Structure formats: C-alpha cells, structure tokens
Amino acid sequence: MNETDHTNHVEKPAGDPYGRGLRGFGVNLLVADVLAQVRFLVEVLGVEQVYSDPDFAIMRHDGTDFMLHADGTYHSNPALSLTGENGLRGAGVELRLYGIDADAAVVRAREFGAHVLQEATDKPHGLRECYIIGPEGYLWVPGRAKD
Predict the structure, then answer these.
(1) Under a CB-based contact definition with an 8 Å cutoff, are residues 134 and 40 in contact?
(2) Model confidence over 29-74: pLDDT tens digits?
(3) Is 6 within the bounds of a domain?
C-alpha cells in the first residue's frame, strides 16, 4: 500500500459475526470520507488499519478496535440527522489514544495540515497530551505517561 492508497485488499469481515464478537467499549465514527479519515489516523496518530474501503473501516490502537462508517451506509439511522450540513460531528467528544508521543503527533498533524487545538502539554493527571482536530472535525487526544 502506498501513502495515498489507504484501501486494503484484506477480505471484508462479515458483518454479523464481526458484530457478535464485539465486547467492552466501542466507538464508531460516522464520517463523510472514510479513506481521508483512515489516512489521518494512520499518518498522524499511527493507528493500525485493519480493514478499509470507501464505506467502512476497522482501525486498531493498542489492541482496541474502532470503526468508521460512511454516511451513506447508515441509511435511515437517526444518527444521520445529527451530521447534516450544519450538524455536529463529535462536538464535545474526546477520542483519546494512549501510548502515543504527543509532541511527535503535533509535528505530524501540522505536516498533514490538521488543526492543532492545543500543543503537547504535561497534564496534572500524569499524561503529556495534545489536542488535534482531524479532517471530519473529531477531536483526537493522543498522549502517554509523562517522563
């Protein structure tokens, strides 16, 4: 796979068995452009791409999977009413990825053209983290334990 092609050629997991196997906490992001979001997650935050196509992606960070779905895959899902032209995409939600060097993520975010909302900062809860707004407007907070 090259840097601009973030589709992969792994067989798409069957929905029913994959869904039945999910446990614990889950995150699904409804996005306008799945492959742009995959590219951001891979190139800026170092998240592993498990599977992706223009409609759906499975991403993995430190053993935890989360999903991306294109708006069109949601059909009549009521969540679509929140994401329209002037809708909210993740307002107030922090998507936290632990174990990532925040300083390096800021550099990569700027190279990518993403908006850095807050530089890498040592926080009172023992982490050094930054705030980056991704291409769909979601707020990503990569960080790791302070040295």
Answers:
(1) yes
(2) 888 899 999 999 999 999 999 999 999 999 999 999 998 988 888 7
(3) no
